[in-house]
Write a structure and sequence with these properties.
The complex is a heterodimer. By secondary structure, chain A is an all-alpha fold. Helix content of chain A is 70%, strand content 1%. Chain A folds into two domains: 258 residues, MetI-like (MetI-like fold, Orthogonal Bundle), CATH 1.10.3720; 238 residues, MetI-like (MetI-like fold), CATH 1.10.3720.10. Chain A has a two-stranded antiparallel ribbon. In chain A, strand 1 and strand 2 form a beta hairpin. Chain A is globular, with a radius of gyration of 25 Å. Chain B is built from ten helices and 19 strands. Classes of the chains: A mainly alpha, B alpha+beta. At the A-B interface, helix 1, helix 18 and helix 19 of A face helix 3 of B. The structure holds adenosine-5'-diphosphate and magnesium ion (MG).
Chain lengths: 554, 368
């Protein structure tokens, strides 16, 4: 064995620490959940008894079908809608593409609860447009599906924009030269080219709908799905064992979708050769105007949903007194935590952004750049990928079992803000890890070799070169962590205490208590904060590309 | 391993590589490599892509440690040392310049951590930029430099800490042809002035022939030959080297014993020791060694040929010669005729003439 340098030692220790962190914040809680599902209330091992009871209780088992139903229908609606929208953004000369793209991203800044609340304003028991339902009810699968379509739209659109943006102009020129008709080109070149993007988007949306808690909670009515079942079992009936079983049932499809998506993405990599010529769309008035109208309608609907919630939050007494007021924002009048929940969320988001970005970026660097130590690196990489497959509710439930277990020395974290931070970092780890890895792979692979030859420690090079060069990606990660910590409900619903209640949970609680306008107001606070942070990022990125990092200019 | 120039007597080599192998899984990228490099020497590792040149260079640097074998530098066993404890400067094909640091900061990068004073660093960096001919560009960022300038900055950075050994991995291959030729001379001149022992990896034989004191020709993870450029060119030790370096005729022949070779129904004399009679061989000669002038009755190895075709290549013509005794589908000999010669003898396609294959220019390699 070659001797290790100090750098090697430092980096390997870093990997060990990272793996230990991921073990504690992801793997062990999942293990705790798994073992719980095989135990009875006295913590005796009972084999499959809980599972047998689950699958033989129709009231419980029915939720599996319900969850699959809403997930499949929502996916089937979102995919074509988002595909055409993404097509308009990438393959047409529609005016204002930047604005339309920004418009479609709005739902990402909001908790999933927001579209559900808007729907209630419009079609709920006292909804403005309720007569349009002809006696039907929005509370149930239709409400869930409509709200999910809104909430999932940007996720599908981003994946499809990425897939459609990677087009090789040479293919289209060849098809043109061969005299292929427009529809023929679409079905033989465009669609196959976006195939992997479509499949990937499908899996992502399916998993999002399957595992989302907020929408089903607010607008699901008596329609039970897996996500709400977990909540009912654990919070309502204190039946932790059955909660664990439902959690495992929810985890299974998420893992299948995750694995399938990884396989598909691996295929995608080879699709575009380095010599591809980027496709520049040519104007075509008929197509462009049709797509413009389409974008206007979809973008308008998305904006409308947000606007309804904003308007609702300013209304005195829906639907009887429609005069405007800021009274609903006086949260202290409606909830003991009042504005405290909002400040808690802000704290959580800030800590998650700062600590999470530091851990995730450094971790990705160690995994990417450590010499040798393949075992440690592969293990850390696997642990870094794991969270993407784990629904927030499942992770949160695992935290209860793991951190609350008797004799766990980390038990002191329970019911603190710290555990919410640890949980949020773990929950949103993978996407950020992939962003960091992509950025690191774009650096010259020999920076570390050069600094070793110059006898400069790797830590110094990390700090002086790697971090500054990756700053735009680091900023991306921080904002992603912040916005997600701000909007999430599912992972934290089991973990907050009266002192650490979050804004998103306050929305759920206030909606439960019938203060819909106040819930809408709190949701708007979340959206506003996320949007402000996002705008700040845009400004900073602009500065980085210009004055702050002059070396980026040629 | 065949020919190897002996070291100057008495002097211990600066770098000694003994029995180095490198496995990637079950694939051996290096097989029992042994060689020695003297202090102040400029050595090129030459070979086709994938033959293990970079792997060997990285083993010397400690970046990818060899599986077995021993590497000594200046009398010290460095086989198991991490790169940071070895003494070398390195320039990569990509240059790996730090994009966010100015030229001055790039060049001075290794000096700051050695506890040098600010003023001393500035002076040293200035000296180095002068040395590589870029005294004015200190404040620029790498993205604002041309490829050749980036190359020089990378070189200055590698030399900044005055390493005992300079390692260059295809340093010129990313540049366009003109700049490449100029930088060859600059690098070689710089190396001579500094006297730093240098190993350069290249797959470009011309680069190796013009720059190196000695060349290590590699193939499939083994050393085919070590020698000076003229040894490598004049006396290729193996058929691989003969083929890889320069242009060579490979004529299918049979060794008839006692220095006689049969080709095209004719007997040729050459130095082919150690081969049994009736061994199938390749009879090899460089195109420029085919003699046309002064071929008379007393000349040995004369063969009557017809000029099948002539390709004009500027300063000379490349002729394809068809031996008279070989028939129409027999093997052809490629020869280079100077424009002078063509004019003096009035040569043209279709002409017949007698050429000689001088015995001391013939090389013989076993076939099959
Ligand atoms: N990290 C690695 N893993 C597996 N095989 C490798 C690795 N690095 C190099 N090789 C293989 O070893 C051989 C020699 O590679 P290299 O030394 O880079 O060749 P070159 O002579 O072109 O510099 C090649 O066949 C290459 O594919
Ligand atoms: Mg190489």
């Amino acid at each position: 064995m070659p001797r290790m340098s100090r750098d090697d030692l430092v980096m390997r220790s870093g990997i060990v620490v990272l793996a230990a962190w991921m073990l504690v914040s992801v793997a062990l809680p999942l293990w705790a959940l798994l073992s719980k599902s095989f135990q009875d209330r006295q913590q005796e091992f009972v084999g499959l008894a809980n599972y047998i009871r689950y699958f033989s209780t129709p009231a419980l088992f029915a939720s599996v079908g319900n969850s699959f139903f809403v997930a499949i229908v929502a996916t089937a609606i979102v995919l074509p809608l988002a595909f055409v929208y993404a097509y308009a953004l990438t393959r047409s000369c529609v005016k204002g593409r930047g604005v339309f793209q920004a418009l479609a991203l709005i739902p990402i800044l909001a908790p999933s609860l927001l579209p559900a609340i808007s729907l209630i304003y419009l079609f709920g028991n006292q909804g403005l447009l309720k007569p349009l339902l002809f006696g039907g009810s929005i509370y149930g699968p239709s409400g869930i599906i409509i709200a999910q379509v809104f909430y999932c739209f940007p996720h599908a659109m981003m994946i499809l924009v990425a897939a459609l943006a990677m087009a090789d102009a040479r293919l289209y020129e060849a098809a043109d030269a061969l005299g292929a008709s427009k529809p023929r080109i679409f079905f033989t070149v465009t669609l196959p080219g976006a195939k992997y993007g479509l499949v990937s988007a499908g899996f992502v949306i399916f998993t999002l709908v399957m595992t989302d808690f907020g929408i089903a909670k607010v607008i699901g009515g008596r329609y039970n799905v897996l996500a709400t079942d977990i909540y009912k079992q654990v919070i309502g009936q204190q039946n932790f064992e059955m909660g664990a079983v439902v959690g495992m049932v929810l985890l299974a499809p998420a893992i299948v979708a995750f694995t399938a998506d990884r396989i598909v993405q691996r295929r995608q990599v080879a699709l575009l050769s380095a010599r591809a010529v980027p496709l520049v769309p040519k104007p075509s008035p008929a197509r462009d105007w049709t797509l413009f109208v389409y974008c206007l309608v979809i973008g308008g609907l998305i904006f409308g949903v947000l606007a309804v919630a904003a308007w609702g939050s300013l209304i005195k007494f829906w639907p009887y007194n429609l005069s405007l007021t800021l009274g609903n924002y006086a949260f202290d009048n409606f909830d003991t935590n009042g504005w405290g929940s909002y400040w808690n969320s802000l704290h959580l988001a800030a800590w998650t952004a700062v600590l999470g970005t530091a851990i995730i970026f450094t971790g990705a660097y160690l995994i990417e750049k450590t010499r040798g130590f393949a075992v440690g690196r592969v293990l850390a990489q696997l642990l870094a990928m794991l969270p993407l497959a784990v629904p927030g509710l499942v992770l949160g439930l695992g935290y209860i079992f793991f951190f609350n277990a008797r004799g766990n020395p980390l038990g002191f974290l329970y019911a603190t803000l710290a555990i919410l931070v640890v949980n949020s970092i773990a929950h949103f780890y993978t996407v950020s890890h992939l962003t960091a890895t992509t950025a690191l792979k774009q650096l010259d692979a020999e920076f570390e070799s050069v600094s070793a030859s110059l006898k400069v420690s790797v830590l110094r090079t990390f700090w002086r070169v790697t971090v500054p060069v990756c700053l735009p990606s680091i900023l991306d990660i921080a904002i992603y962590m912040f916005v997600n910590a701000m909007t999430t409900v599912s992972a934290v619903i089991f973990l907050y205490s009266t002192d650490t209640k979050l804004a998103s949970i306050a929305v759920v609680n206030m909606d439960e208590s019938g203060f819909t306008a106040v819930a809408a107001a709190m949701a708007m606070m979340i959206v506003g904060t996320s949007a402000a942070v996002k705008l700040a990022q845009l400004g900073l990125t602009y500065l980085l590309a210009g004055r702050l990092q002059a070396w980026r200019q040629r | 391993m065949a020919l190897s120039s002996p070291l100057p007597s008495g002097a211990a080599p600066y770098l000694r590589i003994a029995g180095v192998t490198k496995l990637f899984g079950s694939f051996s990228a290096l097989k029992e490599i042994s060689l020695a490099i003297n202090a102040g020497e400029f050595v090129c590792f030459l070979g086709p892509s994938g033959c293990g040149k970079t792997t060997l260079l990285r083993a010397i640097a400690g970046l990818d440690v060899q599986t077995t074998g021993r590497i000594e530098q200046a009398g010290r066993d460095i086989s198991r040392l991490p790169p940071s404890e070895r003494d070398f400067g390195i320039v990569f094909q990509s240059y790996a310049l730090f994009p966010n640091l100015t030229v001055v900061d790039n060049v001075g990068y290794g000096l700051r951590s050695r506890g040098m004073k600010r003023a001393a660093i500035a002076a040293r960096v200035g000296e180095l930029l002068q040395l590589v001919g870029m005294p004015e560009s200190g404040a620029k960022y790498p993205a604002q430099l041309s490829g050749g300038q980036q190359q020089r900055v990378a070189l200055a950075r590698a030399l900044a800490t005055s390493p005992g050994l300079l390692l260059l991995d295809e340093p010129l291959s990313a540049l366009d042809a003109r700049v490449r030729v100029r930088l060859r001379h600059e690098i070689r001149g710089l190396q001579r002035r500094l006297g730093v022992t240098t190993v350069m990896v290249t797959h470009d034989q011309e680069e190796a022939l013009t720059m190196a004191d000695r060349i290590v020709v590699m193939n499939h993870g083994t050393v085919e030959q070590i020698g000076t450029p003229s040894e490598i060119y004049r006396k290729p030790a193996t058929a691989f080297v003969a083929d890889f370096v320069g242009t060579m005729n490979f004529l299918t022949a049979v060794h008839a014993g006692s220095g006689q070779v049969r080709f095209a129904g004719q007997s040729f004399s050459c130095a082919a020791d150690g081969l049994a009679a009736d061994t199938p061989i390749y009879l090899c000669i460089r195109p420029e060694d085919v003699a046309v002038r002064n071929v008379g009755a007393s000349t040995v190895n004369v063969v009557r040929v017809e000029i099948a075709s002539l390709d004009f290549l500027g300063s000379f013509c490349r002729a394809t010669l068809r031996p008279a005794g070989a028939g129409s589908n027999g093997e052809e000999i490629v020869a280079d005729f100077s424009i002078n010669l063509m004019r003096d003898l009035g040569l043209g396609a279709g002409h017949s003439l007698s050429v000689a294959l001088p015995p001391d220019r013939l090389r013989v390699y076993p076939r099959g």
